[in-house]
Amino acid sequence: MGKRLLYVLLDGIGDLQHPDLNYLTPLEAAYTPNLDAIARKGRMGMVYTVGKKIAPESDIAVFSMLGYRFDDSEYVGRGIIEAIGADMDVRDGDLALRGNFATIDSEGNVIDRRVGRNLSDGEASELVKAIMDGVKLTDATFELVHTKGHRVALRIRTETHLSSEITNTDPAYERHKGMGVAKSSYVKLRLAECKALSDDAAALTAARLVNEFTSKAIAVLSRHSINTRRKSMGMLEANCILLRDAGNRLPDIRTLSDIYGLRFACIVDMPVEQGIAKVTGMHAFKAGNMNDYELKATTALKALEHYDCVYVHLKGPDEFGHDGDARGKKMSIEDIDRRFFYILKDAMDEGICIVVTGDHSTPCIKKAHTSDPVPLLIAQNQRGNDGLNRFTEHNARKGSIGYIMGYEVLNTAISMMNG
Ligand SMILES: [Zn+2]
Q1: C-beta of residue 246 within 8 angstroms of C-beta of residue 73
Q2: How far apart are CA 51 and CA 405, in angstroms?
Q3: Which end of the chain is more exposed for a tag (fewer CB within 10 A), N or C?
Q4: Residue 160 CA, ligand 1 centroid: distance in Å
Q5: What are the residues whose beta carbon lies below 5 Å from ligand 1 (ion)?
Q6: What confidence category does residue 187 fall into, taking pLDDT thresholds of 50, 70 and 90?
Q7: How remote is the C-alpha of 151 from its chain's centroid?
Q8: Mean pLDDT of 135-149
Q9: Gap between the Cα atoms of 394 and 236, Å rounded
Q10: What's the number of CA atoms in the CB half-sphere (13 Å) around residue 322?
Q11: pTM above 0.85, yes or no
């Protein structure tokens, strides 16, 4: 068996100095002996995952980190990727969007974009069923599928092609050339009206249908018994669906094995990752729940017996960044070190090259994705190392790899492996 690559993306790992951590970043403040042992055998650098001034959503960031480049409006939009990941029937000309169950007040102000993050899968599926049964759209059909937690995917179909040139109703993200981009600051969020971005009839119809779906869904949700019960228990109501990242065509991209000549597998949790795995041709392994780190590490090592490159996406740190919880993010990193990297720390002796980086920064003081570059570590035995003893943003800035773009990471690792 030749050289193999374990590619670990820590979601939202990049951060900035935080007062709660004595002005260190969570990665700097965390006790990470296993990750640091790997770092001492490696070289470091910094990565602009999508572009220098882009605060990306995870989907486009992951595509970029796998080596894809999407110039001007080439990207199909997260909605399509989510729908594919959810095994929905989508065709060219359908409109597909990513949705969040959310809580709004009577004026349309967003109280919580994720219903307090405590909507159960059972509650969400029942609400989705109520909308499927109770909402009819004018001259259009739709399918709404619950994926995980507060997340849904929506597909709208008419007799004619629909355009994805429409704005989001989710006020936290904007659409730029098909990509979802986090807004830099959002203090007061309001449910937005969907607007067509051109005078094209296909865009005007798409926007009208999204608005019609949104108001009819709100009507069904506001009188649903699940929300009555949640309210009586002092919990937030799932009384709205925020939609974003419209797409209207199936992606036409090269598979990873075609690009690199390697066999790829991945370990995934989220529907959007399942969608990415499908369109890039990676074999997807399930390995327990989001925080089953031991199982993910052992599954990755097993997969490397049959695949050249295994990609693992760990969602853990990102949510703490969104919640502004620097101590929580530090603890999440320590947990990953203790239960995930502990198992992998000797894998380099087996000829495995370990790459550790992130898909974007989610600094706790910003509570959102930002354009700050993320630290990168590429480690393998018997190759030069940078003489840096910990994996941190501070050290990564001094690393010999320097500043590179997300689409260059895999090629950099592969040439180091062969070099
Ligand atoms: Zn992410």
Answers
A1: no
A2: 7
A3: C
A4: 34
A5: 11, 58, 359
A6: low
A7: 12
A8: 96
A9: 40
A10: 18
A11: yes
The residues, ordered by sequence, that sit 6+ positions from 326 with a Cβ below 8 Å of its Cβ are 15, 18, 20, 21, 26, 29, 320, 364, 365
Given the DSSP bridges, would you call strands 264-267 and 309-314 parallel, antiparallel or unpaired? parallel
- Rounded to the nearest angstrom, the distance between the alpha carbon of 216 and the centre of ligand 1 is 31
Tokens matching residue 170: 């989710």
The two tokens of residue 307 are 């695949």
Measure 90 CA to ligand 1 centroid, in angstroms: 24
Strand order in the sheet with 283-285: 283-285, 264-267, 309-314, 4-10, 352-358, 374-379, 42-48, 402-405
Q: How far is the CA of 318 from the centre of ligand 1 (A)?
A: 6
Spatial separation of the C-alpha atoms in residues 339 and 337, rounded to whole Å:
6
**64 has a pLDDT exceeding 90:** yes
Confidence label for 335 from pLDDT (cuts 50, 70 and 90): very high
SS3 annotation, the chain: CCCEEEEEEECCEECCCEHHHCCECHHHHCCCHHHHHHHCCEEEEEEECCCCCCCECHHHHHHHHCCCCCCCCCCCCHHHHHHHHCCCCCCCCCEEEEEEEEEECCCCEEEECCHHHCCCHHHHHHHHHHHHHHCCECCEEEEEEEEECCEEEEEEECCCCCCCCECCCCCCEEEECCEEEECCCCCCCECCCCCECCCCHHHHHHHHHHHHHHHHHHHHHHCCHHHHHHHHCCCCCCCEEEEEEEECCCCCCCCHHHHHCCCEEEECCCHHHHHHHHHHCCEEECCCCCCCHHHHHHHHHHHCCCCCEEEEEECHHHHHHHHCCHHHHHHHHHHHHHHHHHHHCCHHHHCEEEEEEECCECCCCCCCCECCCEEEEEECCCCCCCCCCCCCHHHHHHCCCEEEEHHHHHHHHHHHHHC
